[in-house]
Amino acid sequence: MRDGEQGGARERILGAAIEVVAREGIEALTVRAIALEAGVNVAAINYYFGSKERLVEEVLARTLENGLGEQLRELDAFVEAEGGDVRAALERFVPAFFPDAVRYPRLSAAHLHDAIVRQDYTGKTVQRYRDFLEGFFLRVRPVLPAGSEEEQRHRVAAFWSAIHMVCLAPRLCEGFVPHALHAPAGAAPFARLLVRQLLGDRPEAQVRPRGSKRRRDPA
Asked: CA-to-CA distance for 14 and 48, rounded, in angstroms?
């Protein structure tokens, strides 16, 4: 088999495994289910990955990088588009983040499976998540309210804990709030609330009545 064909088959198996997890959860990720989804025989999975456990590692690594890495890149793009206004960027970033995240809650659950089910926080996924928090913290730290570093880190932890609870269980608050927190009507006010909790109220000096013009100092 040529290298290109091998690479294509390997990617097809990996994509099939991701699809099974996204649709049915990591518990449904059997070798037979993967083979059926990918249209290959069971032996091909061991041939390309060595074991199902190795395939699971690659599924989590691939989807986590696509998720967490892409989130930071998107935030950077929003900050640039808002001329460096981190608050405005975050108020756009959170609602934009939800649609893809809540479309695949089982992937979010798979990433945190060992932490949630086994209370095991030693895996690569948890470390990658903590690295992500560090990256986010470095980006927002200059605009966080004054306080100790511990207080600032607690703000970031609370911010992302709320967001990822919606990702894990997007309909949890249904019936308690009028609009789903991940839907457009609910996401925008939810984002503003989270950003205010993270960054505090916008300084009054930066807030002008709608329609007012910036006063110019006399020449």
From this structure: 10
Sign of CA dihedral 55, 109, 179, 133: negative
Side chain identity, residue 133? L
Whether the per-residue pLDDT at 164 is higher than 50: the answer is yes
Over residues 25-73, the pLDDT tens digits come to: 998 899 999 999 999 999 999 999 999 989 998 998 888 877 787 889 9
Q: List pLDDT tens digits, range 120-156.
A: 999 888 998 999 999 999 999 999 999 999 999 999 9
Alpha-carbon distance values, 80 to 72, 74, 130, 133, 206 (Å): 12, 10, 24, 20, 19
C-alpha distances in angstroms, 37 versus 15, 59, 76, 157, 188?
Answer: 9, 15, 36, 37, 37
Of 32, 22, 25, 28, nearest to 66 (Cα)? 22
**Amino acid letter, 153:** R
Radius of gyration of the chain from Cα atoms? Answer: 22
Q: What are phi and psi of 84, to 5 degrees?
A: 90, 0
- Tell me how many degrees the CA angle 7-69-76 measures, rounded to the nearest 5: 135
| CB-CB contact of 62 with 154 (8 Å) | no
Residue 3, pLDDT above cutoff 50: no
In whole angstroms, give the CA distance from residue 168 to residue 76.
24
